[in-house]
Amino acid sequence: MRRPVIGFAGMSHLGLNSAVAAADRGFDTIGFDPIPARIAAIARGEMPVVEPDLDAVAAAHRDQLSFTADVAALAACDVVYVAADVPTDDEGRSDPSSIDALFTLVDGAARADAVVVILSQVPPGFTRARLRAGRALYYQVETLIFGRAMERARFPERFIVGCADPTAPLPAAYRQFLDAFACPILPMGFESAELAKISINMYLVASVSVANTLAELCERIGADWSEIVPALKLDRRIGAHAYLTPGLGIAGGNLERDLATVCALAERTGTDAGVVRAFIANSAHRKDWAWRTLRERVLDGRPDARIGVLGLAYKIDTHSTKGSPALALLAHLAGCDVRVFDPVVPGAVAGPAVLAATSALEAADGADALCVMTPWRDFAGLPLAELARRMRGRVLIDPFAVFDRTAAVAAGFDWQTLGLGEMPLTAAC
User: Fold this and answer.
1) Of 98, 114, 97, whose CA–CA distance to 33 is shortest?
2) Which pLDDT belongs to residue 62?
3) Selecting from 3.90.1150.10, 2.20.130.10, 3.30.360.10, 1.10.1040.10, what CATH number does the domain 198-286 have?
4) With CB atoms counted within 10 Å of each terminal CB, which end of the chain scores lower, N or C?
């Protein structure tokens, strides 16, 4: 049986990683993007996104991958995904108009017998509104994660497929492609699938918010959240894979988009979204943890202090700074003496008033405090004794515990991390 040709429209993060994963499974794959400059860069081997293994896997399957800015090339495909990233504003609200325009382009270029699949995240109701006679249309939930996109695209946990009729068999070409990944396939109605993606993210946000709330309480009463986590993971109602790591609020854009979507849907339908608004408030509060700690430990007593900042990306293994806690911290530090370094994100992203260091050690030179805002693996290997020698002060704000606590304290640092308190309360609540 001939293997179907797979097309992906939109060569940003979602489409590019998904296309490379399709080629990795042995399918001839066409990546289309209407921006010629983006296609030209990819052809030169200059990927527009940073992801572990993306460059290597793409290079290994270059014979099965082709990239084009000519939408007519999609006529060779049996299955075409609409896979562009959906932009969001600072409030997390998304505008699906660019996806609608791309879908229209794909729908017009794809063969009449081709299957069109919307992979971009869209609000409930979007896919059904684009059904038309003669076109096999589906919605597939994307579950890529920044920093783990290739892993997730190549080895998915399951496929969630939105259908006009969930009881009908999937078209042969589409089914053959999905079966190649050897994971469960869950067909359901369009709206259920569109809401399933949001539901997954809501449960993740709930876990993050609970962890952040209790970690902050630990910081105030002298408890240690890292001691509590193993007890939670041994509870079957919570589980070994539960997301229990405290963080600096929600970032990256995707989770914020779903929070905003649920609030908008609740307002439109008259349902309650109070807990979601509480998640949003908790995220905003937690994002300023580093600023509050820095102000208490250093700036209230020395407003002219020099601050070193390590990391600008919102998480490791990505170049994205959408909602980055580091940028939120730098906004508070406007007018201060600040030096920053990130191994992937250019220092210019921090703004013209901030000095971009050429290395992590240079960012620490003369600093009264050092803030590790992105837990890049390379930072963990920095010699603490050398950092102490270069710095003027000894405050080390390390929210993600990049450094070992015992080693940091032994080096003379005032080490601050999420979820760890200093002393118990002296009086009952």
Assistant:
1) 98
2) 93
3) 1.10.1040.10
4) C
- For the residues of 51-82, what is the DSSP string, one character each? -TTHHHHHHHTGGGEEEES-GGGGGG-SEEEE
- Provide the angle, in degrees to the nearest 10, between the axes of the packed helices 254-269 and 274-287: 150
List for the chain the helix, strand, coil content (%; round to 5): 40, 15, 45
Mean pLDDT within 50-72:
95
Nearest to 419 by CA among 218, 208, 213: 218
Tokens of 207: 């876990």
Confidence of residue 12 (pLDDT cuts 50, 70, 90): very high
Q: What is the number of other CB atoms lying within 10 angstroms of the CB of residue 412?
A: 13
The kind and range of the H/E element at 204 are helix 190-221
Query: In degrees rounded to 5, what are phi and psi of residue 383?
Result: -70, 120
pLDDT at 342 over 90: yes
In the chain, residues under CATH classification 3.40.50.720 are 6-190, 288-416
- Tell me what pLDDT residue 359 has: 96
Task: Give me 275's structure tokens.
Answer: 């807990």
**pLDDT reading at 395 higher than 80:** yes
Region(s) of the chain under CATH 1.10.1040.10: 198-286
Quick check: 400 and 377 in contact, CB under 8 A? no
3 state SS of 288: coil
Please give the Cα distance from 218 to 240 (Å, whole number): 21
- Asked whether 208 and 215 are in contact (CB, 8 A), the reply is no
Would you say residue 396 has pLDDT above 60? yes
Q: Closest Cα to residue 374, out of 219, 248, 211?
A: 248
pTM for the predicted model, two decimal places: 0.86
CATH classification number, 6-190, choose in 1.10.3720.10, 1.20.120.350, 4.10.910.10, 3.40.50.720: 3.40.50.720
Token readout for 3 is 């293997």
Distance in angstroms (rounded) separating the CA atoms of residues 249 and 279:
9
